[in-house]
Amino acid sequence: MKMFKSIKWRLQLWYGLILVAVLAGFGVTAYQLERNRQFGRIDQELHRRIGMLANALHRPPPRRPEQEFFRPPRDQMRDDGPPMVPGNRPLLEFRLPAENAQLFGTNDPNGFYFRIIQVIEHGRQEIARSDNYHDLAEPAAAVQFDHFFDRQNHVDSGPDNPPAKLKTMDYHAERITADFLPSGEFIEVGCSVTPELKELQHTALNLTLIGGLILLVGLAGGWWLVGHALRPISEISATAVKISAGDLAQRINVAEAESELGQLAAVLNSTFARLETAFAQQKQFAADAAHELRTPVSVMLTQTQTALNRERDAASYKLTVEACQRAAQRMRKLIESLLALARFDAGQEILNRQRFDFSKTIGDSVNLVQPLADERGVKVSVAAEPLEITGDSERLAQVVTNLLTNAIQYNRPGGEVRVKLESQNGLAVLAVADTGLGIAAEDLPRVFGRFFRADQSRTGAGNAGLGLAISKAIIEAHGGAIEVASEMNSGTTFTVRLPKD
Amino acid sequence: MRILVVEDEPDLLASLAQALREEGYAVDTADNGDDGFFNAEGTDYDAIVLDVMLPGLDGWEILKRLRKTKKTPVLMLTARDQTRDRVKGLDTGADDYVVKPFDLEEVFARLRAIIRRSANKTTNIFEIGEVKIDTAARQVFFKNKMVEITAREYALLEFLALHRGEVVTRTQLYEHLFDENESSLSNLLDVHVSNVRKKLGAEFIATRRGHGYCIE
Fold it and tell me: In chain B, which residues have their Cβ closer than 8 Å to the Cβ of A305?
């Protein structure tokens, strides 16, 4: 059953149903039109014959022997002139004109027949019938006729219900038209419609055959069309399967970029590309994080294994414990940094926003790094006007300290660090410039990346290359921006722009 | 056996050096790439333990330069365990590598292995007459009895055994048994040789006057 749930099968099913409905509608309409045409012709014939019979009825009755054939039944014949009926109306005589005799006979495939009835008081009297006239075997049909007769005769002929002059009905393979003449005669002409029915049957068969053929061709075409339309989707899904199996480098082959599916494929491809990048970054991040943890763990393992190799004095154990503590603190710092980054990534880091003087924070940070600056012989100069901003002062102090530490550590001995805070276009702009070696142009885009270090070696325990990544996350969480400009051998400037509110 | 350890993380360097010394090796240390390369090129070490990430010259670069002049066995310490890093290390001329964090025992075993390989030996056990030296356990047997022996005496014995049949000069012995801080005490070597002879028989170490010592 699974097969029939596929889009291809469902489309084909719907398409087939619609095709069948359209073909059936067309077939029925064509059949109906053909039937109307055939029966219209028959009806025309029937009407023509009624008219002819009506004319013959009113003609003066010449007596000619060859017309004895159409005499009224024997018991109603009078020898002396036209017989009288009750109500004193003469019983009409009828003679079929010779030139019309062939209109009713057995040599015609339709076998037209007729009957003429005159209305007399309290009843009716048959005047003439063709000798191929036969009573309707079906009582229901006869009753219907009687009913028609009665209605024309007496009743219900008001303005709402004008007497229908002509009535045509079908009875088995026969079609019969009856007409009520104004003078009170009732003419009934019928014929067999067997040839027409046969022809219609033929037509129906042909229509069915042609319809079936069209349906087959249509279904085959539809199958091809659906397959053709769905093939790109199968390709997309095949690629997606490969990607979900882990091969993120796969891409959908975009053959027709303009088509709807081409656009879908392009969108999916760009999604896959982003996914691949994100995945690669994640992998790199995990590898880097693991790598950063390896060194402190190595320290702890080696220190403890060495210490335990033999009995030692207390001073020696103390050294080991101190080394382990340093390693553990380094790991703690790394883990805290990683967690902070993860929280910023997830948007879970909550900022403790307050109104505070940013210049004061900067002053505090400068005081904090002053010992390091003195140790490296680096001069730190600050130009900061008091400037109130809204933000997490602790987090922003972390950023400033990080920028200052970098500026001092990567400076040349006797170098300078210039800190400037000013208000520009409603933004608080902090610039930290150093006179260090600068950052190579190809490294600049990676400066804010995770685990980036200006040189590949460690420059101090705890410097995992996460500081700038965290600073960037903090500044961006404040709705600000941080950027870097650098010139080799002349210095690097980090610029932070923060909204004041 | 004299070993150079190049590692920039001071706590790691200190404990590695201490542990190796306690294993009986003479250990020199360097905490940056430039010093490391200077030492590696200037002294005939029995092995070098080399970290990859170093300030100054990095481990790859030291290895590449060193291989132009020396075949000293090198054990790389790497924090990256990706295959391409190992391949790069081995292709550049490293004899083996250990991934951080490592167990000291593993470092010792791998060091013994690369030293042994460089001396074209395949087992850890040397049998010379009635003397048996187990380099893995660092034990010496004489007439199937274990002999009490100091680390330095063992180092002397092992070095001579590794170079069995060759005359080893006093200079070589000084270079391989003592690190840079203690090599000035020149009569120490004679004391060690005489102690080993007392324990394993006077004729076990032959003196080639004017040349050095030899185990036949």
Answer: 15, 19, 103-105
State both tokens at A167.
């009535």
Beta-sheet strands, E only, within A61-133: 84-85, 89-90, 113-120, 123-129
Query: Is A468 part of the contact surface with chain B (CB cutoff 8 Å)?
Result: no
Smallest CA–CA separation between B109 and chain A, in Å? 15
* 3-class DSSP assignment, residue A450: coil
CA distance B166 to chain A (A): 35
Residue A124 three-state SS: strand
Q: Which of B8, B19, B82 sits opposite A305 (nearest CB)?
A: B19
ipTM above 0.90, yes or no: no
> Which residues in chain A are closer than 8 Å to B22, comparing Cβ atoms?
306, 309-310
Segment-wise mean pLDDT, segments of 10 residues, chain A, 501 residues: 74 90 93 91 87 72 49 49 51 73 73 78 73 63 62 51 60 78 77 87 93 92 86 80 80 72 83 84 80 87 90 90 91 86 79 90 91 90 90 91 90 89 90 88 83 59 73 90 89 91 79
User: Rounded to 5 degrees, what are φ and ψ at A151?
Assistant: -65, -40
B15-to-A327, B42, B107 alpha-carbon distances in Å:
13, 24, 13
User: Looking at the partner chain, which of A295, A301, A457 has a beta carbon nearest the beta carbon of B55?
Assistant: A457
3-state secondary structure of A45: helix
- Distance, in Å, from the CA atom of B48 to the CA atom of A34, rounded to the nearest integer, reads 106
Identify the residue among A283, A284, A297, A298 best suited for mutation to test binding to B, counting B beta carbons within 10 A and taking the highest: A298
Give me the domains of chain B, ranges plus CATH numbers.
Answer: 2-118 (3.40.50.2300), 125-214 (1.10.10.10)
Please state whether beta strands B26-30 and B2-6 pair in parallel, antiparallel, or not at all (unpaired).
parallel
Residues of chain B with Cβ-Cβ distance to A307 below 8 Å are 15
Domains and CATH numbers, chain A: 2-152+161-199 (no CATH), 260-344 (1.10.287.130), 351-499 (3.30.565.10)
